[in-house]
Amino acid sequence: MPVQTASKKPAKKNPPVRRNPDASRERILRAATDIFAAQGLDGARVDEIATRAGINKRMLYHYFGNKDDLFAAVLDELYETICTESAALDLVSGSPQSGLRKLVDFVVNFYLENPHAITLLNAENLHKARHLKISERIRAVQLPFETMLNELLMRGVSEGKFRDGVNGARLYISIVGLIYYYLSNGHSLSVFFDRDLFDRTEIAAWRTHIHQMVDRFVAA
Amino acid sequence: MPVQTASKKPAKKNPPVRRNPDASRERILRAATDIFAAQGLDGARVDEIATRAGINKRMLYHYFGNKDDLFAAVLDELYETICTESAALDLVSGSPQSGLRKLVDFVVNFYLENPHAITLLNAENLHKARHLKISERIRAVQLPFETMLNELLMRGVSEGKFRDGVNGARLYISIVGLIYYYLSNGHSLSVFFDRDLFDRTEIAAWRTHIHQMVDRFVAA
DNA sequence: GGCTGAAATAACCAAATAGTTACTTACGAC
DNA sequence: GTCGTAAGTAACTATTTGGTTATTTCAGCC
Predict the structure, then answer these.
(1) Model pTM?
(2) For position B128, which CATH number holds?
(3) Pair A74, A87 in one domain
(4) Residue in chain A lying closest to B174 (CA)
(5) How far is B82 from chain A (nearest CA, A)?
(6) CA distance B37 to B27
(7) Of A84, B25, B64, B143, which has the fewest CB atoms closer than 10 Å, so is most exposed?
């Protein structure tokens, strides 16, 4: 029961609203990434995203249209990141073996450093990758990457380091699959095998394991 | 505008309701499996499950308590299936190599024949495997399985077929990971690599690829 | 200095949705 | 037969939730 000074409509009580469209948009995107990754597309709540972003829900619709388009924007950013960082990889300089090691470490590090990526991609694949199918820009980047990898393998063959007939795309899928499944299903697996697969040393051992599998697979 | 014979409460129009608790329970479980697999835990709708099962929604709560417990029941059945079929595997008879081939084929076939499994396990891992952590029975089956696999590897070593130092659990995770990721993220990957990875011949090639990776990984 | 459009807010709404209530009906034990 | 219980139904509800309406406020431009 406030006693005094409570005028019906306080003249200038609230601090002036600082506007910052870019920052608002960015904060929404960050919050959406977090929450979509944690809860999935259907589990995520628009209100929760708005609260986490510290903005009014209306702004979310202002900037992104609707929930699905916001999810698409989150995914688009993720695809962008993957494509950019993959394209920036230099597999050419150095020996073929070191190129391959570099690729494995990049992939492993990427999913370790971007845990969001896994649940987001899972959500996307639950919906049969319908957002990716619309998105452009992917084909433009993926083709050069596949070519670069195949060239690395061919160079290894001609240098007598790698055997012939290794398919670049399949090798790449294998590398990603090995780290992705380990992290994606780590909770189940930890129960099954009765150890904590997210422990630092376990993860380090797994990285070594992937290197071994790849090395032995391509070895001449 | 019906003209006649429409008595206010038709005496025995509807055929007597045939009761069949076991069948009802089973139909609910089938429908729930389908829909949880297709939409995830949060995306699935209780009403849709009830409709698909052809039962009244109330029965779903009668038999399973609530949505989450129904999901747990679906998962429990899946874990049961995986455990039973894994335990039934005979890796002992025959050569170590053939035992390993048998294991790979079993895992690959299992996920090809049970596409539900992948999305259900993904949904479970999105929730940090909280249902599995409660479920008993797993540890009882998994330990013998791990032991069996390690024995297979040791036999291969003593027969001079396999190299020493291969970890059974890691090998198993690798095998599952290779097929699981391929199928789980096949939609994304198909866009990325601009081909249909769910095509029969692509899948056959992938199976061969997994065999090669495993063979080369354990080879002496 | 005032005008205009974008940025921001609060309150609201209709549809969807998990879960219930109150009731009826078949089945099997006795 | 009849009686208690579990199987089954229809209609309902409290809440959640994605999306909107109506309105205000700031920032930059002329």
Answers:
(1) 0.90
(2) 1.10.357.10
(3) yes
(4) A178
(5) 11
(6) 15
(7) A84
